[in-house]
């Protein structure tokens, strides 16, 4: 079963990897463009190259036939040595002399290639040049120079041997002539017989040397046969423009994939919904589509036909049926760091709960100047001012259209935020089943930069973390989980809000992520760079 599950999960892993790579599509597009540009540059700057080919069958030249008897022809010649000779400077000098065009030897040798097919006595000469005719002329010049070099070397060896044998023969001839004179002038028969015997031995030795000289002079010094002369090639040997473009595109795309993979590995932010789920140890409740234009913060009810409104309704339906909220309860909506998504999610989830028919109280627990009052459509009346405590302050009715309304407890500047959020009255407010409300939705400042969220998380029935998948960091999600679970809270899930604008071209290299300016990001309903507490109230930030 485990093996089956692993095999079934492989396509999902592959799709996840592909999604991660395509988040950095700028690397892929740029690398592909550079590869095509490089291929075109090589084609234009390198020019066409033509290769002419000539083939030679090398003959074994026997400069001393009386010493090579019984040895086969293939054993009398080393093709490796012949290949080195064909590429030597001596042969190149002969080719340069035949061309007589002033080309340097190093330049001539650079474009020459000589190969020997296995188990053959054939040398294949290949020469590349910028024109077909010049390639043919050069390869034929090298073939001719190689054959001339071998024949000259063989002739020189034969002449050297013949000269040495001739030197040995001259004193023998003189000795023979001397014996002839002695035999002619000797009257004694015994002495004459001795001279004649010496002469016979000398004649045999002379005949042997003369035979060897005659054999050497009669040897065939043909160095080899030209099997195929180098003709001008009809087609260029270098890759054409199409092949170079294809090669450049493949190489560029490969480098782009490698760069995108390295970028995705080193990216500290989350790369997918699965990343959010793994680091937060909670499911992803829903993904909010990108917001089009500015619009109002309350999208459920009045603009109920939008995709974001439907996404909010789906998330609210899942939360209502969660076992931690069964029979009512309080719900904390919070983001890891500065983001307007938590406030928007809290408002619209309260509206979606109201559409279902629940009696909802939205608590703005920022404990600063109220901001949601200025952004929500309030109904006249329905206020109950109680000046003694913020938790029992005025409740404003928010109109959700024909589908209903919910109450809002706006934020208020308090001298001691910590005492207000941990007071029995606030705990009683969160205990929805014992009060007039089915659910209490609380929104606070960012959990990692404000202490309000952590103070509420340990008292709420569940926590929903709202984050921008293009901004949130993996280590931030790990820390959110540690803080909430360490305080005794429970994370119900995450809501991914893609924000209000699409990635621009200049941000594609960063996976479509936004880059915020240094400093604080203002949240809706939090005018100015407000701290958790004013000058006369102590700060609760970490």
Which SSEs are present, and which pair or pack?
Blueprint: H1 2-22, H2 25-46, E1 50-58, H3 79-86, H4 89-99, H5 105-110, E2 112-115, E3 122-129, H6 132-185, H7 189-217, E4 224-228, H8 241-266, H9 273-280, E5 284-288, H10 307-320, E6 329-334, H11 341-356, E7 360-364, E8 396-399, E9 405-409, H12 417-421, H13 424-430, E10 439-443, H14 452-457, E11 462-467, H15 474-486, E12 491-497
Parallel strand pairs: 5-12, 6-10, 6-11, 7-9, 7-10, 11-12
Antiparallel strand pairs: 1-3, 1-4, 2-3, 8-9
Helix pairs in contact: 2-8, 4-6, 6-7, 9-15, 10-11
Description:
The chain is α/β, with parallel strands linked by helices and 542 residues long. 45% of the residues lie in helices and 13% in strands. The chain is built from 15 helices and 12 strands. An 8-stranded mixed beta sheet has the order 5-12-11-6-10-7-9-8, sandwiched between helices. A 4-stranded antiparallel beta sheet has the order 2-3-1-4. Helix 15 links the parallel strand 11 and strand 12. Helix 4 (89-99) packs across helix 6 and helix 9 (273-280) runs parallel beside helix 15. The longest helix is centred in the first third of the chain and has 54 residues, at 132-185. The chain is rod-shaped. The model is unreliable at 1-8, 384-388, 504-509 and 512-542 (pLDDT under 50).
Helix content: 40-55%
Over all CA atoms, what is the radius of gyration? Answer: 49 Å
| Shape by Cα distribution | rod-shaped
Low-confidence stretches: 1-8, 384-388, 504-509, 512-542
Number of strands: 12
Alpha plus pi helix count: 15
Q: What structural category do the secondary elements indicate?
A: alpha/beta
What are the secondary-structure elements, in order, as H or E?
HHEHHHEEHHEHHEHEHEEEHHEHEHE
Largest sheet: 8 strands, mixed
Which sequence of strands runs across the widest sheet? 5-12-11-6-10-7-9-8
**Average pLDDT figure:** 78
Strand content: 5-15%
Distance between the termini: 47 Å
């Amino acid at each position: 079963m485990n093996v089956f599950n692993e095999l079934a999960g492989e396509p999902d892993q592959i799709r996840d990897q592909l999604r991660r790579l395509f988040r950095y599509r700028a690397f892929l597009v740029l690398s592909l463009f550079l590869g095509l540009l490089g291929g075109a540059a090589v084609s234009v700057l390198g020019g066409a190259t033509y290769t002419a080919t000539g083939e030679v069958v090398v003959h074994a030249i026997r400069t001393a036939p009386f010493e090579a008897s019984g040895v086969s022809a293939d054993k009398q010649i080393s093709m490796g040595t012949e290949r080195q000779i064909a590429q030597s400077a001596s042969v190149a000098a002969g080719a340069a002399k035949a061309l007589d065009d002033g080309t340097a030897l190093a330049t001539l040798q650079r474009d020459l290639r000589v190969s020997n097919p296995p188990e053959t006595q054939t040398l294949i000469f290949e020469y590349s040049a910028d024109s077909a005719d010049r390639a043919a002329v050069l390869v034929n010049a090298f073939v001719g120079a190689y054959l001339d070099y071998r024949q000259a070397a063989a002739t020189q060896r034969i002449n050297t041997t013949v000269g040495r044998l001739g030197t040995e023969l001259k004193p023998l001839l003189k000795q023979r002539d001397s014996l002839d004179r002695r035999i002619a002038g000797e009257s004694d028969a015994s002495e004459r017989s001795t001279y004649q015997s010496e002469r016979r031995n000398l004649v045999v030795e002379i005949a042997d040397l003369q035979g060897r000289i005659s054999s050497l002079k009669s040897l065939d010094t043909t160095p080899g046969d030209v099997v195929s002369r180098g003709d001008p090639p009809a087609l260029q040997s270098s890759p054409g423009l199409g092949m170079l473009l294809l090669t450049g595109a493949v190489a560029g795309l490969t480098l782009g994939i490698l760069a995108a993979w390295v970028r995705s590995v080193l990216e500290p932010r989350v790369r997918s919904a699965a990343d959010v789920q793994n680091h937060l140890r909670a499911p992803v409740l829903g993904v909010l589509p990108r917001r089009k234009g500015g619009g109002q913060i309350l999208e459920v009810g009045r603009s109920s036909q939008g995709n974001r409104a439907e996404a909010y309704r789906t998330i609210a339906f899942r939360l209502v049926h969660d076992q931690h909220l069964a029979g009512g309860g309080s719900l904390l909506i919070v983001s890891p760091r500065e983001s307007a998504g938590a406030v928007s999610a809290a408002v619209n989830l309260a509206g979606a709960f109201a559409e279902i028919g629940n009696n909802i109280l939205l608590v703005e627990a920022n404990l600063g100047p109220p901001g949601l009052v200025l952004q929500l459509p309030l109904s006249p009346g329905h206020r109950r001012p109680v000046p003694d405590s913020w938790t029992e302050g005025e409740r404003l009715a928010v109109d959700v259209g024909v589908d209903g309304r919910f109450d809002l407890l706006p934020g208020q500047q308090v001298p001691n935020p910590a005492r207000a959020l941990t007071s029995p009255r606030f705990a009683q407010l969160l205990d929805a089943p014992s009060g007039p409300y089915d659910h209490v939705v609380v929104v606070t400042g960012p959990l990692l930069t404000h202490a309000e969220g952590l103070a509420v998380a340990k008292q709420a029935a569940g926590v929903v973390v709202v984050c921008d998948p293009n901004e949130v960091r993996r280590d931030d999600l790990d820390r959110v989980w540690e803080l909430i679970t360490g305080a005794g809270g429970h994370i119900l899930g995450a809501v991914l809000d893609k924000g209000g604008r699409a990635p621009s071209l200049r941000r594609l290299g960063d996976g479509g992520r936004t880059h915020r300016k240094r400093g604080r990001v203002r949240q809706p309903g939090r005018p100015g760079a407000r701290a958790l507490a004013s000058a006369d109230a102590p700060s609760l930030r970490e």
